[in-house]
Amino acid sequence: MPFKVINAINAGKEPENPENYNPWLTNIFFSRFPDTLYFAQMMNLNYDLDKKYQLAFVINTVRPSKRWSKWLKKEQSSDYELIRDWYGFSERKTQDALAVLTKDQIKEIREAVATKE
Fold first, then answer.
1. Which residues contact residue 57 at a Cβ distance below 8 angstroms, ignoring those fewer than 6 apart?
2. Tens digits of per-residue pLDDT, 28-55?
3. What CA–CA distance (Å, rounded) separates 102 from 94?
4. In 3-state terms, the chain is what percent helix, strand and coil (to 5)?
């Protein structure tokens, strides 16, 4: 429901459920646009303010506008899935393993998977 709060702020309206305001998510969203970057940074610097004061600041300073952008997601290589499945690692351990493994080692694992199938 935090996206409904962001949509309400973009429309220049008071959100229906202000308790759904998520400062971190809202600041990430507004940091993507030149006209709201400064306001997001102000809230990042004043993270210790109560959520209702942060919401009041954002509602009263951000001009209504249609803002839309895709949320960026990490791209995962085929090596990531290969290592994760081969070793049964978690996401964190897979990233650590990719940082340590050489291209030759990854090639050996790929060949072992191919012969196993």
1. 39, 42, 43, 49
2. 999 999 999 999 999 999 999 999 999 9
3. 14
4. 65, 0, 35
Output the pTM of the full model.
0.60
Question: In sequence order, which residues have a C-beta less than 8 Å from that of residue 22 and are 6 or more positions away?
Answer: 2, 5
Q: What is the pLDDT of residue 1?
A: 76
Kindly tell me if the per-residue pLDDT of 27 is higher than 90.
Answer: yes
User: How many angstroms separate the first and last alpha carbons of the chain?
Assistant: 44
Q: Which fold does the domain 2-61 belong to in CATH?
A: Zinc Finger, Delta Prime; domain 3 (1.20.272)
* pLDDT for position 3: 85
* Beta carbons of 83 and 89 less than 8 angstroms apart: yes
Q: Tokens 């290589």 belong to which residue?
A: 77
Q: How much is the CA Rg of the chain, to the nearest whole Å?
A: 22
Q: How far apart are CA 18 and CA 5, in angstroms?
A: 7
| CA gap 74, 80 in Å, rounded | 11
Question: What amino acid occupies position 18?
Answer: P
